[in-house]
Amino acid sequence: MTLAGHEEPWREWRSATAGPRLHHGWILAGPRGLGKATFALQAARELVAEPGTAQPVGSHPDIIQLEPLPATSDDEKKREEGKPYQTKRNISVEQVRGMQQRLTTRPTLGSRRVIIIDPADELEKGAANALLKSLEEPPVGSFFMLIAHRPGRLLPTIRSRCRTLLFPKLANEQVNSILAREAPEADQSTRDAALAASAGSPGAALEFVQLDLGAMYRIMREIAEKGDANFERRGKLAETLGARPDRKRQLAVIDLARAVVAEGMAGATRHSIPLLTDVHAELVRLGAQAPTYNYDPGLLVMEIGTLLASVAVPSEPAYG
């Protein structure tokens, strides 16, 4: 089954595979949650399959997948038990070197092998440099599929050695339809929050539904519209976030705040646009730093709340 928004990437990919010589490196580019990993795995299985050779239903010996490892030994146990777990922030150079060691042998079932790196824009610096060597001199029959949510973070030398498949964002109507089908139990406020923060990504929208951020969305909109002179709303925001939110929840809250500010821009006056733009830029900065910085959750939510309050009350300083 072709996922929504994948029609053009599939057309381009199959046109390339039907040609006389398939490029060895591909970047699958687009926001998180568009189904790029699903596409990569399906395309890889098609590429390595050969007539007359039975293909395994589960993991394939000629498809190598690199992704961030579990963060701790406890997370490793959770993964083995099929439970949610935290991952390390980056794909390590040791993982890339392990992959390269496998490339010194022949594929197991056929003449082709595919390496999927998800996400490639979260490679350690050393890992990215090591990968570049494989892209410069790829072994015969080896093809690389680099999933990139933010392709601008990839090394220019990596980008120059790959072709790019762009995955488009979906319209709000499409995302809303997917939410109705996949998460019918979600109430309207939760769906509204998910739709606002998803930025056209159905996967992101479904993650927001799972995080149940409807109440936080309401509080954020109140702060942005009415301000928070006595810090009461910011206190509610902190309570809703929780004392020990995981990294995924913290990132989702930043994205949600950014969406609230973006909504305000739709009806902004000429005089308020510069302030909204500055606040939005600050939230973008927070979102870019959060995956690698260890923010204190309490301080983070207060900074977000203060930024939102500054939109409603220009006289209030951007940092409290």
Automatic annotation (TrEMBL):
Stretches the record annotates as Disordered: 52-85
Pfam families named among the record's database cross-references: DNA_pol3_delta2 (PF13177)
Leader sequence segment: none
Residues that span the membrane, as ranges: none
Tree of life domain: Bacteria
Positions with biased composition (Basic and acidic residues): 74-83
Name of the featured protein: AAA family ATPase
Organism this protein belongs to: Croceibacterium selenioxidans
